[in-house]
Amino acid sequence: MRQSSAILNTYAADVSGVCSALYELGGMTIMDDASGCNSTYNTHDEPRWYSMPSMVYVSALTELQAVMGHDDTLCEEIGAAVAELHPRFVAIAGTPIPMMMGTDFTGLARVIEKKCGVPVMGFGTNGMHSYVSGASLALVEFARRFCTNTVSAQKNTLTRKTKVNILGATPLDFSVTGNLEELKNLLCARGYEIVSTWAMGSTWDELMNATTADVNIVASSCGLELARYFEKENGIPYVIGIPTGTFVTNAFFASLDAAVRTNKTQTPLWQEETPLKKGNLNTVDAQPAYVIGEAVWASCIARALQEDFAVQNIRVLCPTEADDILLKPNGTHIVYEDDYFDALKKSPLIIADPLYKYAASKNTKFLSLPHEGYSGRIFRKDIPVIMGKNFDDWISQFLQ
Amino acid sequence: MIAISHEKESDWSGASIFIKDAVFETPFETGVEYSSPARGPWNIVHTGMLMPESHQIFVCAQSCLRGVVLTAAEMNAEERFSTITIEEHNILDGDMEKLIIDGVADILHKLPVRPRAILLFTSCIHHFVGCDLRYVYDTLHKQFPDIDITDCYMNPTMRKTLTPPDVKMRQQLYSVLHETSIRDNGINFIGNNFPTLLDGELGLLLQQQGCIVRDICTSKTYDEFQKMAQSKVNITTNPAAFLAGETISKRFGTKHLVMPLSYDYDEINAALSQLYLLLSEKKVQNISAKDSLSSSCIDCAALAHDADKALAKTAELLGTTQIAIDYTATSRPLGLAKLLLTHGMNVTAVYADNFISSEKNDFDFLKNNFPMLRLYATVHPKMAILPAQEKSYALHDSPSDGSFTLAIGQKAAYFTGTRHFVNMIEANGFWGYSGISHLMELIQDAYKNEKDTAKIIQVKGWGCCA
To answer: What is the pTM assigned to this prediction?
Structure first.
């Protein structure tokens, strides 16, 4: 039975992805829902409440409104909140019941924008996809609406630092435990200038200057569509990946340099072929080892294990939406519990969020890598910093 | 200083009002809603976990599942919790009944231990697609006759009706009790998330009458829980449980006694008197509560004196310290405010979006006698921004000038940014005079000792154990 899950968890949904991506941008985000999505987001998907309040609300849809429609009421209520709180913009994101009601979020956004006089974005999310799809939609639409700076970087200038944007950074992938900071440190140490981070820790003005970057970094699946948008609109090439471990870190910076030099988007870090090394786990001819998680992080980790720790026959299982380009050559998009149990039952090594442990057999070596987008805050304090050489230090504890 | 993600100033209008200007029972405008990250109050998963040896299955979309599945995971109760995910095609295919039936069967086959009961939660989607739930449950009952499978609902679109999910959950929890011909001297406390504390006058009265006290909160096994069907009286103290008490009493032909949580001595006496008359089977009419209790072991005057002493001691300790109360701590925040204010304490704020009808007298009293008492909404959109902006608080820091607000309830603690708070949810099982005395002890402790507010209030379903 594919859609039943006796024990495994579920990922943060698309509507949370919208909220997370827009959280710091000074807007007002409204989930069109009765109440559950709001408390779930606030409790499990958003760690920033205690350091940075934001205007994230629920429309408080009622039974009667679900039957009769509530577009007029919603317009009025959002208008009232906007008049009181002066957000830079409004975003409305859908959930399951508005989908059944056939809510036209694009049309609704236009009506509210006309009424309130602030930019309004409508997202037809329905709570049935992962945060990746919601965050992707939100970041692209935000860029399309607001990041209209047409001033591009002067390319190939030797006298200044290379400018980069980090795309797809939200707490759902990065949490708030130091990985984003370490990624920035690595970039700065190598002489790169970070223009903006989409969308954690950057000011409005920094985001508006994103088009001046020489190259974009797709730091999670959430940033891929945004990178494609900036490439199409502003000619900025991109590199997909994060620097995990010695080999991938070197490849990451080589790829960035190549992208700037050639002004061309590079192949994802994990897709260049290298000769197989002698494995220290007997996985080549036997069952594969698995990294489970969001495609960019999981693929970079898998590559690091292969190159720096000689773990062969390693595969990626990606439960969130992923473009084909992210899944090649050893990735698979799987969602259902039965598929996980089938795939993992004989695996010698699994690296995944601790809540996947239930799908592993007794003989499997299971390395816990908590993922905020999956287990939320439960294991946040155990999330390791894995950028650069930190990954080697972390993984060495378990594999040597 | 925390960062605020917007730049323009706003004021408190709409989100806060002096009680003198407020309208009962809904003082605030409604609109889009904020949800503060104070997570101690229980949700339907927590309440369901009270049933021993039961298993919960939720059928809904990914966005709805995440909150409940992580509720279970956070309390290490994954093995008592499963899900069936609704996907887009299920809404179009019209196969919702099959999805549920096959999903439940699949989960039951996978579980290492066969549960005694299944709490099967359907959601708003089933409500609106017209899912034939009768067919679903009839089929499941036939397939699994050895398991009590009952219908539960995660239907937040019903949140503003007479049967919101919380009330419905408390009602359905007892629907699996089997009818029995045995009727004993049992007393059920129905619909509470915390066991009622019986170390005071209520416990004494029940003991004097030789009652067996039963409560799902204290039931260790499913069989022990089932014995609740034998009890002759069902007591409810929480307004959210009244429907549950009424339902179970109608079903078994037993008595339902409402003994509402109260901070008013006359109301407490009246409730004790009603209980005494019911248990002793006396049919005395038109006498005062005090007189009716005179032949029992309860000395109302002495109890009131003890409560007054506890209140006086607390008032002396607190001095002019400002006190804020919220509705998650007690269903009678205005009643509690009145009690504290009339005993010399300085209640300055009550956080509640609306009030239950039994608070009307307290509302009127406070309006006339303490008109500057400030009422705050908790879900008004301004509450996401203004409390933080005004206080510039970070819940990790102690106030620099030594002054603080003492909060009763997690939401009041969050909004005031205090580290001095009484971590009380649904009155913590306190009731009556002894409940007041226990509460005073907690207030004194909160005054003297700081708590790690941010850490505590983020825990979902405070006090719930799987």
So the answer is: 0.93
